[in-house]
Amino acid sequence: MRRAAQSEAVATRGAASWRIRRRRPRSDTVAAYGFLAPNGIGFLVFTLIPIGASFVISLYHWPLVGEASFAGTQNYRALATSDPVFWQVLRNTFSYVFGYVPLNILLSLGIAVWLSSKIRGKNLFRVIFFLPVVTPMVANAMIWTLLYMPQSGVIDWFLVNVLHISGPNWLGSQTLAMPAMIVMSVWQGFGYNMLILSAGLQSIPVELYDAAAIDGASSWRRFLNVTLPLLTPFLFFAFVMTLITSFQVFTQPYVLTGGGPGVSTTTLVLYLYNNGFQFFKMGYASALAWILFVIIMTATAIQFVAQKRWVHYG
Amino acid sequence: MTQTLQKRTFTRRHALKVLGGAAGIAAIASPDTLLAAPGTSPFAVLRAQETVNLKWFMWSGSPAEVDAWKHLASMVTAKYPTIKIEFVTASWPDYWTKLPTEAAGGTLQDIISLQSLRTPGFADLFQPLTSFIDKDKFEVSAFDESIIGGLTYQDGLRALPYDFGPEVIFYNKDMFQKANLPFPKVDWTYDEFLDTAKKLTTGGKYGYGAWPYPDSWLPFALSDGATYLDSAGKLDLTNDSLVAAFSKYTELVHKLKYAPSIPSTKDTNYMQAQWMAGNVAMHVNGPWQMINFKSGVKFDFGIVPMPKGTKGSVTVSAGSGFGVSKTTKHADEVWKAVTVLTGPEAEQYLASAGRAFAARKDEQQYWYKNAVEGSQETLEAALKSVVPYKVTPQWQQVSTLLLQYGIPAMNGQTDPKDALTQVQAQAGG
């Protein structure tokens, strides 16, 4: 009798706990989906579906005004074989990336390390360095247009009146326009990475430095063997994000140079924009978008594979 | 039980139908109809009092211009009280990006604006006006013929013009006086132009603002007898006559240095801004800028026709107008509005304000009255030797690329022929 009651109680408890087990995960799942829904729907409607649609459009001759006609892979083939400037535009994009990313990382790392030492008013400096990041890019680019102006620009004024040499036409020169654009971009963008790396530096335990110091490590050794390895997860993040955004560079050439002189500062996204919204070849522009997509995905994938060799977690 | 259910369902549906019907009737029978005077058809009253809201999309370059357009919109409502117009604007380059985007997005405005150089590229967005013109027996002959031609594409006129004008040279009188130079004459030659530009180039200022946009240098090329289209109307930028003319133009910057070197920019109005700032003494522009210059520059200025080249003083004319968008639901009202926006009163207003050298021949006198001194003589001379500015459907691309490739050519970094070859290769198809 007691045993029966016991077993009954166990059964009831079992049923109850089973019910609880069942109910809890289910309600959690619903809640989880509920919380994910706004972002999920946004991702679906504003990212995934447009990405799919852009691939379909890339297979068409698609003028913005008028009838579209199926083109198959013609847009892609035209880009690779008959477009007179596509390869130049691709080279421009890579030279921007290879110029901008290392400079940005080096400068933001340098400034972050400098600001992590005991100096007065470092928070003020952080704000100052971060300001260009939060200022609209168009405004920044307009200001730099004025700085770079031949004859009347501030840089030219400085060169003529202080150094007594005549300045070049920065944005009018095919060799100088791209470096000028990179310099402006680094000034504009390094503050973001500086902040990430500053946060990374603060997370490194002081004891490690103390231990290294007791072992007689010089400050350079401590930077090389303590700071850098522990900063690698942050460097990795900064590197990947900067790489992706630099492949997508648009505003700087759009406002600063319009892609010229010639096509010397036309990047992939600017070329895409021109084809889509200036010359109204939406199919061609979509094909360009997909090429850019593949490039960025590849570059990011390489980063993620390579990180195993140089990123230290914990 | 089944029966009851069926019955109940029926009743509900029935009730819904009755409710829906009542709502429909209520919607049709607005207070206007119910209050209709005895003896008139309720629907006629309803239609007469229905306000039509039209959106009008037009570019503008300054607050003064926006005010002028809004004034025009109010003229439409004054004449047709049931037509209300909402004015929507964008800068000149943005307008041409936004317009097709709106069309692709299905949100094209009702009244849209067209410039003659873009007629072949954008005609598809405009309804041909032939049927409206025939129905109203509208007098197209009141307008200048060249601009009517400029706004016509295949099966008909696409927009009624409000302005047009030949490209001329705007010059800064203060800089001439400072250099003790006489003002240029209507029949001046290219050599005189060069001599003047040379003498005005002093103290960090330049005599002329050379600019690679086709509107700025094609008049020089045409005055030397060059052509830019072949006999079939296709782009032909690499023929010897044009290469020679363009090379000669670039020399103003990199060889003679009477014009400043140019930074690369997407700002199509860069050289205009340099002239307005008093950095260059002369530049090429159209009479439509009179309103902006009169309110925007701090010096006296004048206008003079293009200097005579080997084939005389030849210039191109361009102009703009308003049309009925292909997707509007109120085509009749839009047509009515457009006839007011380009009507004699509106033209008189625009001409007097200096915004538009009137496309209506009778109203051109008002522009002369308020334009700078000597304008009438200059424009009359320019109009004698003006040629229609013929373009290809890809003209926007041609202009953009000429800006990009023309700048290094002007600065002496690339061969002018190479620049033209690049543009031809990309936009010639």
Describe, in plain words, how this protein is organized in 3D.
The complex is a heterodimer of chains A (314) and B (429). Chain A has helices spanning 2-58, 74-82, 86-116, 122-134, 137-148, 154-161, 177-202, 206-214, 219-247, 251-257, 268-278, 282-310; strands at 60-61, 69-70. Chain A has 314 residues and is an all-alpha fold. Chain A has two domains: 2-58; 75-310, MetI-like fold, CATH 1.10.3720.10. Chain B is α/β, with parallel strands linked by helices. Chain B has two domains: 49-165 and 319-369, Periplasmic binding protein-like II (D-Maltodextrin-Binding Protein, domain 2), CATH 3.40.190.10; 168-285 and 394-427, D-Maltodextrin-Binding Protein, domain 2 (3-Layer(aba) Sandwich). In chain B, strands 1, 2, 3, 6, 11 and 12 form a six-stranded mixed β-sheet that branches. In chain B, strands 8-9-7-10 form a four-stranded mixed β-sheet. Chain B has a two-stranded antiparallel sheet with strand order 4-5. In chain B, a hairpin with a 2-residue loop joins β4 and β5 (156-157). In chain B, α16 (344-353) packs parallel to α17. The chains are: A mainly alpha (314), B alpha/beta (429).
User: Uncertain runs of chain A with pLDDT below 50, 5 residues or more?
Assistant: none
Secondary structure class of chain A reads: mainly alpha
In which order are the strands of the major sheet of chain A placed?
A: 1-2
Specify the helix fraction band of chain A. Answer: over 70%
Helix segment tally of chain B? 20
Largest sheet descriptor of chain B? 6 strands, mixed
Quickly give the structural class of chain B.
alpha/beta
Roughly what is the average pLDDT of chain A, rounded to an integer?
87
Radius of gyration of chain B (CA) equals 27 Å
Name of the CATH class of the largest domain in chain B: Alpha Beta
* Number of β-strand runs of chain A: 2
CATH class of the largest domain in chain A: Mainly Alpha
Question: What's the shape of chain B?
Answer: globular
